[in-house]
Amino acid sequence: MARVTFLIWCLFAVFQAGSSADSGCGGPRELTAGSGTFSSANYPSPYPVNLTCEWLISAGPGKVTMLQFTTMDVEGGFRPNECPYDSVKVYDGGDASGPPRGQYCATNIPPPDLVFFGDAFVVFTSDERNTRPGFSACYSTSTPPALPTPCGNVGTQAPTPPPLRPVTAWVESGCGGPRDLSGPSGSFSSLQHPANYPHSHHCEWLITVDPGMVVTLTFDVFDVEHHDTCSRDSVLVYDGPSTSAGLIGEYCGNVPPRRIVSSGEQLYVIFNTDDENASTGFSASFLAADPSQVTDLPTTTSKIHVTTTGGSHVTKTTSQRPIADPTTEGNNPAGGASSSFQATHIAWMVVMRVVLMFLQSI
Ligand SMILES: [Ca+2]
Ligand SMILES: [Ca+2]
Predict the structure, then answer these.
(1) What backbone phi and psi angles, to 5 degrees, belong to 159?
(2) Which ligand is nearest to the CA of 197?
(3) CATH of domain 18-142
(4) Average pLDDT value over all residues in the chain
(5) Residue 280 Cα, ligand 2 centroid: separation in angstroms?
(6) What is the pLDDT of residue 12?
């Protein structure tokens, strides 16, 4: 029994030694020199997927450490300051149980005044898809009352701008299939459609047609968790190559949005879901069109929440009308039902009056 215990202890010790030797991103996990640098794996080439790297900046007893991120381009979430996919996390102390100092992603460089009294711990993680160039960082230490000398040119070096094109030849949309869709026509759908889409999911598509043409986008089937402001699950459509372009509309509910037309040769589509309640999602198709042949060209809007439920169509916070295809403008099922009811009602009134006149005449 004692031998088995000793063997297990040895294996554990070897495992610990092995895991502590390398950060996971190349280079040592424990940084003990008075100053140094470290970065995500392959930097500045894209880091691998499914990666976890750790660095323990061990300044030594009584020392002060200054940590600076000199570049940062890590896959970020749709909303600012949220890092649901890939992230860099910084902790006070020697491991991730210490007080968190921050979580960083996208091209938001952490503040340059990350100073620690003692050790600092940094964890970088990437998820299973979409990679970016990553980050580079440096640190320096000092003995109080002297402050560490800044080691990098934080703030003077522009962060790498997010490329309009994928950093690799083929980027997955997040919903299966490619993110980049180009050509005269194409289609895409939510993940697992027509089965329910997963929770806490993000998908994106960049549709590009030939120069001089515009994109017409049609949702053939649409069922996305309804909410008055589409703040649970939603489809967002931007009039250009990224979220920096004008937002055409944010959509949820169970009635397909009307046909959407870009002003240029690109549309950017995002599908976000929250952590509860799912529906069957959507399937969509696009066609390239000659702008002279399209009458429903878009108008610039601030933000539109189009919520649809039970056949009704409600537009919220609209500064201007959402883009609509005038050929389908009259196909409001509620309006059609109302007209039909009025016609039937009038017909019955006429019949009743004729019967009454006949009865009075005999
Ligand atoms: Ca990722
Ligand atoms: Ca949901």
Answers:
(1) -65, 155
(2) 2
(3) 2.60.120.290
(4) 76
(5) 11
(6) 42
